[in-house]
Design goal:
single chain; 250 residues; alpha/beta; Carbamate kinase; 9-stranded mixed β-sheet; two-stranded antiparallel ribbon
């Protein structure tokens, strides 16, 4: 489906959503840096969603540029907290690239960060972010929470609760949550539904445990899905079975 002139044929059932994308969404798997084609692919999907009237905020990771854990492993030269701040800056780079890609598609977009850098971004302010969403702008949220030792998954969960989102969408390169890593174990089983309790008890690799606990406390449902499969995002927003749905009970 080409983005030019395309429209959603499925009716969304959610009004406001948070889409969490790792840094891998902006580059080729196994490689570092930002790839413009991959970034435009994300932008085209976001444009289709926003054009349907859904209020969309995107929380971006930065692992394609830098993972703080890699720099903090030794702990002698670069301290762990500093490495985390470096990772936050990497998310801002992805955010700027996505903002430009969206604007090249004529989407009104705002980039907000938890770290103050007023020459290139807006600070994250809840009321301002809500106003942008209500006006139909796509908001990109970068910089994590602005504090070290917190993952971008947890940042996405916190922002989703702060902005009173209807659902948190976690885009990955696999089809959902599996019993084991499907890229290593070909016999791994794909779950279509899970409760927060199951995820926490079985330590399943959905998001980090703090993010899951945050969503559980707010009764915020999560859909983990393969964003690279054409139409998956639209189907998820239409309430159709896609990936793995995580919620309180079924």
């Amino acid at each position: 489906m080409d983005d030019l002139g395309s429209e959603l044929t499925l009716k969304p059932v959610y009004r406001r959503v948070i889409l969490k994308l790792s840094g891998e969404a902006f580059g080729h798997q196994g490689k570092t840096g930002i790839n413009i084609d991959e970034t435009l692919n994300v932008a085209r999907q976001a444009r289709r969603i926003a054009s349907s009237g859904v209020q969309l905020a995107i929380v971006v990771g930065g692992g394609n540029i830098l993972r703080g854990a890699h720099f903090s492993a030794g702990g002698e030269i670069i301290k762990e907290a500093t490495a985390h701040y470096m990772g936050m800056l990497a998310t801002v780079m992805n955010g700027l690239a996505l903002m430009q890609a969206l604007e090249s598609l004529k989407c009104e977009t705002r980039l907000q960060t938890a770290l103050r850098m007023d020459t290139v971004t807006e600070p994250y302010i809840q009321r301002r972010c809500l106003r942008h969403l209500e006006k139909g702008r796509i908001v990109i949220l970068a910089g994590g929470t602005g504090a070290p030792f917190v993952t971008t998954d947890t940042a996405a969960a916190l922002r989703a609760r702060d902005l009173e989102a209807d659902i948190l969408l976690k885009g990955t390169r696999v089809d959902g949550v599996f019993s084991a890593d499907p890229e290593i174990n070909p016999h791994a089983v794909l779950y279509d539904k899970l409760t927060y309790g199951q995820v926490l008890r079985e330590n399943l690799r959905v998001m980090d445990m703090q993010a899951i606990s945050t969503c559980r406390d707010g009764k915020l449902p999560i859909i983990v899905f393969n964003y690279k499969r054409e139409g998956n995002l639209e189907r998820a927003l239409a309430g159709l079975p896609v990936g793995t749905l995580v919620k309180e009970s079924f």
